[in-house]
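Suppose a classmate hands you a notebook page containing two proteins, each written out with its sequence and a corresponding row of structure tokens. How would you begin to make sense of it? This section walks through that situation. The first entry is reproduced here exactly as it would appear on such a page.
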Amino acid sequence: MSRLFIREAYLTIGTKQFNTRISFDIKKDDGSDPNKAKISVYNLSPDSRAYIENTSEKMRLEAGYKGDVGIVFWGDIATKGIKHERNGGDIITTMQCGDGLYEIQNAHIECSFKEGSTCQQIVDAALAKIGLHLSVKSGDLSKQYINGKAFSGTVKKLLDQITEYCGLTWNTQNNSIQIYPKGASAVETVVLLKSTTGLIGLPSKTEKGMMARSLLNYRLIPGGKFKLETRDGENTGSGTYNVIRVRHFGDTMMGDYYTEVEGTVNAGVQI
């Protein structure tokens, strides 16, 4: 088991990596709007601050514990979303970021597909235009547009139309696209949450299912699954859930370093 008390985080922007003190608040869900992150890096050099101000490169934040670090956010730094401020002896650079922010929300495409084109062909063509890839496809995209399809607008709007036509859902996670059936999960891998794997306190009921807090866990992502094992069993929601919302938040130096996850009932769960 990894040593869950030695915090590590690495911020990569383009070809540069920063591993000074980092704090972050990342919010992800299974909707089609971009996920958002607020990331602060402490005491960068003047050259590093200038680089961040002027680059258009992607950013990637990896976080976890010594020997077990993974991606918690991958996307774009928002235009005019950077500020530098002094707090005591520290200079703090804070970035507002979005997952697939520019490609999905802002990229405008015009395309026309012939009679009988499948939804898979349209999705592949659209993603190729904006440089994103389909990391998960667990739904059927073979449905055809018998009379062809013409489109002009954002990639988000096109993916909304295609997935609705096929009875599927989609979202962006870590700079790639997931497409899968509504009410299901994108992947079959299950993250186990119990006291010995980082679960903190007791889970709580929500309108849609169950909410739990654990030590920071990059493996929890919308479209995934988690399994709760609690000492009180069914009284506190033991069972398997589809992840619909995740929040990673913390500071590599002090205070919080947690993941909050909300899930809907998967199967055989009594809440």
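The notebook's second entry, a different protein, reads as follows.
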Amino acid sequence: MLKVAVTGNVASGKSLVQKYMEKFDIPTADADEICRNLLANDEAVIEKVKQAFSGFDIMENGVISRKKLSNLIFSNSEQKKILEEIIHPKVREEIEGYIEDYKGKRFVVVFIPLLFESGMDSMFDKIILISAEQDIRLERLMNRNALSRKAAMRIISSQRREEEKVPDCDFVIYNNNSPNELYEQVDAVLKKLMNTH
């Protein structure tokens, strides 16, 4: 089985690619979704996060507020690192379990925004980068999350630059234009993956 990771910076179009791949019955997993589930349902993770951030306002109606937590970590790199140290090992565990569940398939695709930052790149045979120009991502992020330019830029700046990731990827898909142009590139990459395996 070929293990494929898809990465890309915020608002590059990973969700669009995931939805498109799912149309072909390709097993896909999303690290962001795994994180959300852990913060909402995993008692051990919830407890660790509460303890680690007890001095900060991250709770709302008795549960961890993802919005408050995001605001905190994107404005404080030290706190971001603390959260990642709690979450990343659990995310890795979940992904390993997911891959195991689909080992009979031809390939499995996992979407991981912080693939290199988390050190999970070594788990995969092939890596695809979804790339989009920063100005385009900035506009998308502001519109999608109803953020000010400053808040959106803070999130964008917190991530490793796209150009630094390109040499470590097997394929780069550019999402600067229409969805159809994006899908054509995805088709071409899927065809190559099918041929290599």
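A careful reader of the second entry would note: The longest strand covers residues 2-7.
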